[in-house]
Design goal:
single chain; 417 residues; alpha+beta; eight-stranded antiparallel beta sheet; 7 helices; 12 strands
Length: 417
Amino acid sequence: MKSPHYLLMCPAVLTAWSKCLTALLLLTIFFLSLPELVGQTSSRQQLEQERVGLEEQINLTRQLLDESLEEQKSTVENYVALQNQLEARRRMLRNIQQQMGILNDTMQIISDSISRLTTTFESTREVYFTQLRISYLRQLTTRDWMYLLSSGNLNEALRRYLYNQQFRSFIERRKTELDSISNELHLKKELLQQSLSELEELQKRERSTVNALNRDLRNQDALLNALRGKEQELRDNLREHERRRRELSREIDRLIAEEIARRAEVVDELPERAAEYERLSGSFQQNKGKIPWPVERGIIQSHFGSQPHPTLRNVTIQNNGIDIRTREGAMVRAVFEGEVTALVSMPGDQKMILIRHGDYFTVYAGLQTSYVVRGETVRAGQELGLAGKDPGSGNHTVHFELWRGKTMLNPEDWISR
């Protein structure tokens, strides 16, 4: 009967134990760090996507402001754009600081993983060199062929031969394990160095964003002081703007009421049209939050609903939709498939287009030109015309509204972010 000591030192037993322990150690290190690293990477990716979007918004707002400042315009619209710019920069700063926090946590996870791998490496190396010394000493005292020839019988010779093979295999596996852990350590250290470089880049962005934020704050104060010096002019412009807005609202109310009545007549005469209306309504509803913007690039200058005036105290303004400021030559596009039910000329040689999408309507006002006609069926993304210049501010602005029947909806709840 073999002694427990013999069984413990037997190469077959050692090999099995070594494979199990090494695999267990590596798997433990891997699974301890993997969930945290995956979670951190996913959060970083989301934040980075948000940062890229904010950077695009800031660049566009900066371009629009630069164009106005070249013409020495101190307008309420520029003040609002600057406020949007400030908010975007604050969000950018929070974004960068969140990314830095995640990166610091990631670096700590990697450092802990390196420490665990280093401990495993040292332990494995110690066992490897111990067994290597034993093998070397055996070779000095007894040659393999002499060890086999000294066997009492053929079975014993076979066992000794298998013992030698298992012992060599055990040492080779230990060497492979050492190489594997060494490679993993090298990769982790490279990842740590990469994270350090990313952290340095984020710190540079943070400093740049803080400087830009302080500059915009100074510009905002200067612009506000300039606007306060012409309050009466602002009030006159606001009255004119509100007059035009009321005219537009009355016209939209009338057109939508006519379309609702026309639909009832059409469905009575052609019942099959009801299914098409239902299909369009359902499809539009399912795309809530995913509907594209009516312009490719722009910033929301005025939001939906009741809101305080940006600079005039105790003045409230009402917006039935949103005003999107864009660049000269910007193309206005249909946000969804539907039928052009109205094309109206507005004061200032501008156009307004009403498109029906089943029970829903979209309004595009302030167009310089129109490329569609009443009764035309349009597809999502089809060009409707060019964005026009607002008579009051001189900026290229598109007024966009969204209705369900006679109920106004907030377009920002429907368009994609």
